Amino acid sequence: METTYKDEIFTKRVRAGKRTYFFDVKSTKSEKDFFITITESKRVGEQQYEKHKIFLYKEDFEKFSTALEETVTYIQDNLLPHIQPATVETEKTPLDA
């Protein structure tokens, strides 16, 4: 008996230094619903990886997205050093006087 069930619908990989993050959209076995898994994969040996996974269900997408956006904005606005725009000094010429 052949099955056409395919649980993985979409995947996005983000490489970040020693870690790789996977954002996967998967369907349920009934194929009538879907959810997101977020996986952090980190190399811990020659061919060994440590993985951590979060399951995010559609009823929580908006709350999760809002909380993540607020958290990133807080860090960017309050904890990261702010870069001041460089001031450009111009030399005055006799025509400017």
What would you say this structure looks like, in words?
The protein has 97 residues and is an alpha+beta fold. The protein has a domain at 1-61: Nuclear Transport Factor 2, Chain: A (Roll). It contains one helix and four strands, in the order E-E-E-E-H. The mean pLDDT is 85.
Task: Sum this structure up briefly.
With 97 residues, this protein is α+β, with helices and mostly antiparallel strands. It contains one helix and four strands. 20% of the residues lie in helices and 38% in strands.
**Strand element count:** 4
Distance between the termini: 89 Å
Unreliable segments of 5+ consecutive residues: none
Instruction: Count up the helices.
Output: 1
Helix content: 10-25%
Whole-number average pLDDT? 85
Approximate strand percentage: 35-45%
Largest sheet: 4 strands, antiparallel
What is the fold-level CATH name, i.e. the topology of the domain at 1-61? Nuclear Transport Factor 2, Chain: A
Secondary structure category:
alpha+beta
Rg over alpha carbons: 23 Å
Structural topology:
Blueprint: E1 8-16, E2 19-27, E3 34-43, E4 49-57, H1 61-79
Antiparallel strand pairs: 1-2, 2-3, 3-4
Characteristics:
single chain, 97 residues, alpha+beta, 4-stranded antiparallel sheet, 1 helix, 38% strand
